[in-house]
Amino acid sequence: MKKAIFYHAGCPVCKHAENDLIDAINNDLYEVETVHLVEKPDRIAEAQRSGVTSVPALVFGPNAPLHINFGASMADVRKLAKG
Amino acid sequence: MKKAIFYHAGCPVCKHAENDLIDAINNDLYEVETVHLVEKPDRIAEAQRSGVTSVPALVFGPNAPLHINFGASMADVRKLAKG
Q1: Can you give the three-state secondary structure of chain A, one letter per residue?
Q2: Is the ipTM of this complex over 0.90?
Q3: Which runs of consecutive H residues, i.e. helices, occur in chain B?
Q4: Which chain A residues touch B68 with a CB distance below 8 Å?
Q5: Which of B2, B26, B53, B58 best probes binding to A when mutated, by most A CB atoms within 10 angstroms?
Q6: Which of A29, B9, B14, B48 could be disulfide-bonded to B56 (CB atoms 3.0-4.6 Å)?
Q7: Mind listing the pLDDT tens digit for each residue in B36-70?
């Protein structure tokens, strides 16, 4: 079972990507973990180590983030998380 | 069977997205059609009608393109297609 991580911040752009894309990827071969970074700010550093600079982003492996459209920068996410 | 279309221009950013993402989506529920816009310039207008402004992009339905990272603008794609 391969694994991908979808990082998001609950924004409309993130929701749109999640609805279509994550539903399509979750299947017999792949498991997608969805991480809401505003609710789980302790995962922000991990996302940034994977190369994530904005959300929504999908990470299949180290240093290979796929940034999908543009919802919010990681700086914005950090501000929201402190909210 | 649901369908998604992956538009690309053969660039390195496109290839990276294709390797991870399209392999993950092609499954029992989804079929992904891959369209190389430089080789098939007659599909460029169709991609733009779906809202695609850059490649690589993944389209699940009308007006809901997911732009993945940034490889090339559609203006660049048109120039490449003219060779």
Answers
A1: CEEEEEEECCCHHHHHHHHHHHHHHCCCCEEEEEEECCCCHHHHHHHHHCCCCEEEEEECCCCCEEEEEEEEEHHHHHHHHHC
A2: no
A3: 12-17, 23-25, 44-49, 74-82
A4: 66-68
A5: B58
A6: B14
A7: 999 999 999 999 999 999 999 999 887 789 999 99
